[in-house]
Amino acid sequence: MSAAELVTLTVDGVEVQVPKGTGLVEAALAAGIEIPVFCYEPRLGPPVGACRMCLCEVQPGPPKPQAACTLTVAEGMVVKTALTSAMAAEAQNATLEFILVNHPLDCPVCDKGGECPLQDLTFRYGPGNTRMAFPKRTLEKPIPVSPLIALDRERCILCYRCTRFSEGVSEDGQLVARDRGAMSVIATFEDQPYRAPFSGNVIELCPVGALTSTQYRFEARPWEIQNVPTVCGLCPVGCNVTATTREGKVKRILSRNHPELDRGWLCDKGRFAFPHLYAPDRVRDPLRKLGIRRFEELGWEEALGEVERLARAAGGRVLLALSGSETVEQAEALSALVRRGFGSDAVVLPEEVSPALDAFRLPLSAIEDAQLVVVLGDDPVAQRAPIVDLWLRAARRNGAEVVSFGPAEKMQRAPGTAAALARELAEPASELGERLRSADRAVLIWSGPGGQGGAHLAALAGALGLAEKPGCGVFYLPATPNGRAVAEAWRAAGEGEPTRLDHVGLLLVSGDEATADPRVRSLAERADAVVAITMFADLAREWVDLVLPGTSYLERDGHLVNLEGRRQRLRRTVIPPAPDELLWIARLAERFGLRLNGGHVSDVGLHAPLPARAGRAETPAVPARPSPGTSHGGPLRLVRYRALFSGPAVERVPELRFQRPDAELELSPADASLRGISTGDDVQVSSNGTSTRLRARVNPKLVAGAVRAADEHVGALSGAVEVIRT
User: Fold this and answer.
1) In terms of Cα–Cα distance, which of 231, 227, 264 is closest to 560?
2) Domain span at residue 697?
3) Last residue of a domain, one of 536, 568, 590
4) DSSP secondary structure, 463-491, as one string
5) What is the number of structural domains in the chain?
6) Confidence at 630, pLDDT banded by 50, 70, 90
7) What's phi and psi for 513, nearest 5 deg?
8) Whether the Cβ atoms of residue 56 and residue 65 lie closer than 8 Å to each other
9) Using 50, 70 and 90 to split pLDDT, how confident is the model at 328?
10) Sheet holding 55-59, edge to edge
């Protein structure tokens, strides 16, 4: 940076140079001096100067304290904080005294006690005693903001961090400040439950104990907990988190700011789904089927002997179904066991992600700085990779043009036509394609069904010349947390492509996601024997022969590779109620004369770096899938999507159930009118002899000829469906 772009100022006698435009709070930190704040939070956008805790004496300027958070540096500025200015010290003392006038002194029972900025700053800057003899104001408490969040209004200091997050970051607009002046209170819009995918972030943003987690409320104190840094394993983003444990149990999940990846935000699924570890129906010992929905518990040696017997009886006709939630180490061990131990090359992989994408690798934070972002695919980004949706919102606020194509996007496209659209954008005659070619910071995102989506995206990026521009890149949003690494682990365990079995002697199912997959269930019904590694036997009770206890991502040591291609360390936060999969897989492999790695896990640091871009890889041309046309009351194309708040973990957390998608079918206005259907009507959806009943919702954004519903509500329905009002 040139000298002309630097500004010199003095903070408490310390001279410091910082870039022009730097805020005064950051400039003071550069000088090694802290200016206390409550409302200030750079991630929330422009400062509002609401709390007045950052009052300083600033020259040149008016002869009164000024809010440092609202000021930017200027050449020759002289700043005096409370450490060197009696005026600033008196102002900060008065500010804290004013905040504490009605603030309850309930620190011993407040969940924020011991982790509270108000406590800390009161000890450092506030009055030693109170001059106020009148009773403090009391309000109704706690207010249920949602099943996940409780609000103690009398503790609120009106810093507006929560409302600013709701309005300016997640953009859900559901938290508001009601009334004015001394009567101002935080409330939800029209007193409705705060139902938004990122609502839990306001708990961490709150600098006092006003907004607290209903799950963590009265559960632990700061001096009796341990905090373990790890990553979330519930979606392909891999947000950095901290797991708080007490007496060997997870009590809460907090975000852990990785500026390139998540910026410290965390979706409610990652934050609140941890109680599934303690669900009453969790499998803790191996179970063998005795009859219809009847099982008996086995010892581990007997269970491993049963797996050995079934594998040998299958005679190499073993099919492994991987879920994509396994760690790299688990996937390597299972793949080696099946390919080299059982002698089978048959596998059901969660998805294939083209390695050609590595030539266009970027951190997710690059989306925010992009000039032009193009999103392709049938699935909503917010459901597939929620943090990516936050980055897209940040890009729009920064002036980027975000063009989204899909069945329910502004740029409507029929389902299944993303591949054809990618070819159109690569053509020289495409206006949008030319703008992508000329942009210095262009980003492509694919959010849709797997298959060849990554190859299409890489081919488009290559045709547009994005590999030669360091500010340009692509992101393929997988459907599973670790799908690509799991597929690579399978390929590395043996030679040759996966084989197809006409008859399955043994189906080995790994993970809850695969166990709940209708494709896997269909295979299980035709297999001679089925062994499932799962946390919950109910997922497979009707068709499994042997259940082996599975573990959660919070109970594993290993690595996950996220959608950026970033290899991150997963740290075990609590001991699982069953042996680690790596241990018993290794013991089982020894029965087949196979020696596996004992599961040594190398560290990659608290904030894993993003690998450099790989060299260009050849991307084969893939023909676009045709899109069947539908009109005049005929069959409609069903667009299924995996809802963020779905799956075995969410289903076992009562506080999260209100976030699950409604049992409804979305129709376009044209298709609804043609069939005499209105929002709220009951409809029957049928295909190939299978049907289900849902409630209709007319979506003005949905393209004609398509209907859309969450996976959990449509069962085995797919393709063309008939929709009839009932």
Assistant:
1) 231
2) 636-725
3) 590
4) HTTGGG-TT-EEEE--SSTTHHHHHHHHH
5) 5
6) very low
7) -65, -45
8) yes
9) very high
10) 14-19, 6-11, 78-80, 55-59, 66-67
Assess whether 558 and 507 both reside in one domain. Answer: yes
Domain CATH for 399: 3.40.228.10
> What pLDDT digit, counting tens, does each position of 571-580 carry?
999 999 999 9
Strand 558-561 relative to strand 567-570, pairing:
antiparallel
pLDDT digit string, tens, across residues 173-232: 999 999 988 889 999 988 899 999 999 999 999 999 999 999 999 999 999 999 999 999
* Angle (CA) 658 536 569, round 5°: 85
SS3 letters for 265-295?
Answer: CCCHHHHHCHHHHHCCCECCCCEEEEECCEE
pLDDT for position 716: 83
Residue indicated by tokens 């030679």: 495
297: helix, strand or coil: strand
Query: Is there a single domain that holds both residue 166 and residue 267?
Result: yes
Buried b (16+ CB within 10 A) or exposed e, 189-219: eeeebbbbbbbbbbbbbbbbbbbbbbbbeee
Residue 613 within any structural domain of the chain: no
Contacts of 718 (CB under 8 A, 6+ apart): 638, 640, 687
Distance CA 119, CA 108 (A): 11
Instruction: Give the integer Cα–Cα distance in Å for 621 and 452.
Output: 10
Whether the pLDDT of residue 4 is over 70: the answer is: no
Q: How far is CA 111 from the centre of its chain?
A: 25
Q: pLDDT at position 352, please?
A: 82
